[in-house]
């Protein structure tokens, strides 16, 4: 705080010095400068006319235009300028206000606290009144204890959970990985790792997160965190009934007044909406597939049609239909394998990419 006060005082002094120097200077006015340019221009024209390098009539016209420009400057100069002392007063007011703000809002009576001192204070608070610490300072304080407790899975679990609350998901994932290394048989390390990775990926469970949840459920089939996120993964994959079953398991394991009940209920409501939308889309695609199949039965020489049919079966996750189309392509284009390969490649592209 003392450093801030000294800085504010120095800024005030610098502003004062600059303002005084500015007020004491006597610069040429815009009109004086314009007159000097006009006189120099006229003198140059006269020299050029005398030397025969410029036409006298043209020189008179240029002098007239220059005189008009000078007149416009004189008219503008006639406007009363702002007193520079107003600017000086404003600068002083701003500087004094900043200093006053630091005195009344800040704590100039307290000494500066370097970061190391703050961390030391956080560690002390962690030991005496941990509930008063916010998540980020608590996480920093916990990190200082790694030399003492670094071989304890519980330490890394607490650190990771605190970092999740603080929003430091990457650091939390690293802490939970330490838990899985020190206690690979504990489901809690794996489920927390999967959650941190999911949060780090903006709510989407990537392959590593999915594997972590699977490891957790292998060790403890009742791990609520792993069950909840596994239900979300099933929803993402379109396996709605399986997801609904897992959400039901989670609800049955939570107390009726547990706040997480509302979260699960919201997920189930979203699942119902997604299932309804998916059913509508499936019906539309199913109708298109039936039409394609009928058309291809009459005219099998239609590579575009086969590509759309193959893509549709993949969207529908109809493995048997996909196998049937591939077998038909092998038979139909046995002597033209390049066409069959092109159909399969086009089916792999997103809709509209053709």
Automatic annotation (TrEMBL):
| Domain of life (superkingdom) | Bacteria
Mark the TPR repeats by their residue spans. 153-186
Q: Which GO terms describe its molecular function?
A: lyase activity
Q: Which PANTHER family match?
A: CYTOCHROME C-TYPE BIOGENESIS PROTEIN CCMH
One of the record's GO cellular component terms: plasma membrane
Domain named Cytochrome c-type biogenesis protein H TPR: residues:
139-260
Q: Kindly list the residue ranges recorded as spanning the membrane.
A: 86-105
Q: Which UniProt keywords apply?
A: Cytochrome c-type biogenesis, Lyase, Membrane, Repeat, TPR repeat, Transmembrane, Transmembrane helix
Which InterPro entries does the protein's record reference?
C-type_cytochrome_biogenesis, TPR-like_helical_dom_sf, TPR_CcmH_CycH, TPR_rpt
Q: Name one Pfam family in it.
A: TPR_CcmH_CycH
Q: What is this protein called?
A: Cytochrome c heme lyase subunit CcmH
Q: Name one GO biological process term.
A: cytochrome complex assembly
């Amino acid at each position: 705080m003392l450093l801030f006060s000294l800085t504010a005082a120095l800024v005030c002094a610098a502003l004062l010095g600059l303002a005084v120097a500015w007020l004491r200077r006597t610069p040429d006015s815009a009109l004086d400068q314009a007159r000097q340019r006009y006189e120099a221009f006229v003198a140059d024209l006269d020299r050029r006319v005398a030397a025969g390098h410029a036409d006298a009539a043209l020189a008179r016209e240029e002098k007239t235009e220059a005189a008009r420009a000078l007149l416009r400057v004189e008219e503008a100069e006639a406007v009363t300028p702002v007193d520079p002392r107003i600017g000086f007063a404003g600068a002083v007011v701003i500087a004094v206000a900043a200093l006053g703000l630091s005195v009344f809002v800040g704590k100039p009576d307290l000494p500066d606290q370097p970061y190391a001192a703050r961390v030391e204070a956080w560690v002390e608070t962690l030991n005496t009144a941990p509930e008063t610490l916010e998540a980020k300072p608590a996480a920093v304080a916990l990190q200082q204890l790694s030399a003492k407790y670094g071989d304890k899975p519980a330490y890394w679990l607490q650190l990771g959970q605190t970092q999740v609350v603080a929003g430091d998901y990457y650091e939390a994932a690293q802490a939970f990985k330490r838990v899985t290394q020190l206690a690979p048989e504990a489901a809690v390390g794996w489920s927390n790792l999967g959650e941190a990775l999911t949060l780090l990926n903006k709510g989407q469970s990537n392959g590593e997160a999915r594997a972590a949840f699977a490891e957790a459920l292998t060790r403890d089939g009742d791990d609520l965190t792993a069950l909840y996120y596994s239900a979300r993964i099933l929803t993402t994959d379109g396996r709605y009934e399986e997801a609904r079953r897992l959400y039901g398991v989670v609800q049955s394991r939570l107390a009726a007044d547990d706040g997480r009940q509302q979260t699960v209920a919201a997920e189930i409501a979203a699942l119902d909406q997604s299932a309804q939308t998916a059913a509508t889309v499936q019906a539309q695609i199913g109708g298109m597939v039936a039409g394609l199949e009928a058309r291809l039965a009459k005219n099998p020489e239609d590579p575009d049609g086969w590509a759309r049919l193959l893509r549709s079966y993949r969207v529908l996750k109809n493995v048997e239909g996909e196998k049937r189309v591939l077998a038909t392509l092998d038979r139909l284009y046995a002597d033209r394998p390049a066409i069959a390969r092109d159909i399969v490649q086009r089916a792999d592209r997103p809709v509209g990419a053709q």
